[in-house]
Amino acid sequence: MKSMEIFAGPDDSGEASQAASPAVQLDIRSNLCGKDGAEEADWVKRPAPGSVRQVKFRQIVQYFGKKDDGFYVIDSAWIPCKPSLLRPFKTDDFSFMVVDRGSIAVKLDKKIYTLSKNSVLLKRPTGIMQVQRISPDCHFRLFGFSSQFISASGLPKKHLEALSFLSSYSEPDRTLQPGETTRVLSILDLLQHKQALDKKELYYDEAIYHAFCLFALEIAVAYSRNEHDHFSSLTRKEHLAYEFFKQLPLHIQNDRSVSYYANLLHVTPKHLSKTIKEVTGKTSGEIIDEMVVQEAKVLLDDPSLSVSQVADKLNFTDQFSFSKFFKKHTSTPPSVYRTVI
Fold first, then answer.
1. End-to-end Cα, the chain, rounded Å
2. What residues form DSSP beta bridges with 75?
3. Going by C-beta distance under 8 Å and a sequence separation of 6 or more, which residues neighbour residue 222?
4. What is the pLDDT, as a whole number, of residue 167?
5. Which CATH number does 5-225 carry?
6. Each residue of 192-238: pLDDT tens digit?
7. Residues of the chain with pLDDT under 50
8. Please, where in the chain does CATH 2.60.120.280 lie?
9. Intervals of CATH 1.10.10.60 along the chain
């Protein structure tokens, strides 16, 4: 297998190394992490310097020889361990790391997460990730998917609240129960098998979308289970932001005004806007607009709905005002968006 040049920095310009067999892969991992689980190499403990590497979703699927069906499942055994892997990188997809053996320390944005068996970590499109340490026996799966894949799965239409863990406010790490890990890995096995097929079989799309829905619902259980512990540690401002994010998916089709959500939360619009800005770095209006755009994309994915009907469902006064709003936030008119999804 080639070296992981898509994650390499500007000065990692050497020829790609070849690692054709699992035995060679194991040697690379041992050299990276310390032989026989012994003391780690010095440069592993000190993350490699360098600027953040921007990696596109299509680069990942192309590198691993995957079909671009909006998702990928990667086994850690396929990823050669080399210094360039320790560079910080950013991808434009959602991705879950599910660990079933060993341990790995990952810096996500400004926080370091130490993951072990049954751990799961979510990286959002805005997240910057960097591997800090990895044990010789570590094994994990990476499940990445695009926002378009989420919409195509149909899950947002029925259980939008189940995807609340994708929001930027939810903590990204969780610990699964052993049975949950087994089920999640079985789902990833199925997705991995489907994507490896040379030719799409009957009901291929239906199978992968149903598998994604099962994965998301299993993960949602774990995230909601730990929600209380996270909730109890929140400050008053974080508590208000948390409640704001909970209300958004429930009412986004009815109202897009800050005052509407302020009334629901029994605070003034000014106080809500100030608090959301302090906690998230974005205004409440910006967050509402982002949610409306996401909901609009879901509705536009439904061929039975006209653009005018989508505008009506989202409580716009007419199709023109909806189209103007959608183009402002996506640079694409809704009618054009439909032709490229």
1. 32
2. 141
3. 120, 174, 175, 176, 177, 180
4. 65
5. 2.60.120.280
6. 999 999 888 999 999 999 999 999 999 988 887 766 555 556 678 87
7. 1-49
8. 5-225
9. 234-340
pLDDT for res 310? 92
What residue has token string 């948390």? 242
Residue 183 CA from chain centroid, whole number: 19
Mention the CATH class of domain 234-340. mainly alpha
Contact (CB, 8 A) for 98 and 35 = no
Instruction: Give residue 318's pLDDT.
Output: 93
* HSE toward the beta carbon, residue 268, CA cutoff 13 A: 3
Three-class secondary structure assignment of the chain: CCCCHHHCCCCCCCCCCCCCCHHHHHHHHHHHHCHHHCCCCHHHHCCCCCCCEEECHHHHHHHCCCCCCCEEEEEHHHCCCCHHHHCCEEECCEEEEEEEECCEEEEECCEEEEECCCEEEEECCCCCEEEEEECCCCEEEEEEECHHHHHHHCHHHHHHHHHHHHCCCCCCEEECCHHHHHHHHHHHHHHHHHHHCCCCCCCHHHHHHHHHHHHHHHHHHHHHHCHHHHHHCCCHHHHHHHHHHHHHHHHCCCCCCHHHHHHHCCCCHHHHHHHHHHHHCCCHHHHHHHHHHHHHHHHHCCCCCCHHHHHHHCCCCCHHHHHHHHHHHHCCCHHHHHHHC
